[in-house]
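Board notes (copied after class):
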Amino acid sequence: IPLNDLAMSDSTRLSVVEIFKRPQGMLIVTGPTGSGKTTTLYACLSQLRSETKNIVTIEDPVEYKLEGITQIQINEMIGCTFATVLRAVLRQDPDIIKIGEIRDLETAEIAIRASLTGHLVLTTLHTNNTVATITRLMDIGIPTYLINSAISGVLAQRLVRRLCDNCKVESKVPDDLSSIIDHHGLPKLTSHYSSTGCPKCFNTGYVGRVAVYEYLPMSQSFKRLISKNVSEEDLLIAAKSDGVNFLFDDAWNKVKAGITTAEEVLTKVPLDYYDLRV
């Protein structure tokens, strides 16, 4: 899947592509299992592929075959872990390394060292949002100065069902949905999209899924707060001040555009930190 085919906002996509122009650094994609992280990383790799670049992936398992890229599958049963394979891979001097997942301190430390010594590292974590990724790394023992030096950006994502274009209809916002919107203080909707179901979508009203994204750039002011070991809530407030669009912001924009429904977003996308007061 080309990066341009992912449903990223222009600003998010441009921020990610900007990281690719650097000779070193780390992009972390985060979200729960089944949130589309691997698909996003493969889209990044297809954007990065070139005859002049030595790209290696370390995966569990290898989900798609990519031409021109060395793909290695780990096997923990025989001691072939992310950390041991990563050590071996670094001896081959790759330009770009995709690590399927950071599961422990050892893998995190080697990955961060790699991103500081002339390698571009792409990897994933299981956290709820971009800021939680930073606090997770701090919690497992990565010093704040290494987090600030190594990480170029963090991308969080979720998947929501996409409305069927064939039977999608626009109508007035139902009263019960208006009440929920008012209760949570969400931006008002001028119209409501829903699908009645048709043969094309097997009468479900939905066809496929679409990702919603949250991108955290590592601004200097944000790094200073990380150095001070402030709380996750303070980091979230700082991210909002920096203009970060949270997962719910991106999801709600896709509701307004008729790509998905408010009902789908309210059940799949976390609202817990959306209404932080800056």
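Comment from the instructor: The chain has a mean pLDDT of 94. The first helix runs from residue 10 to 20.
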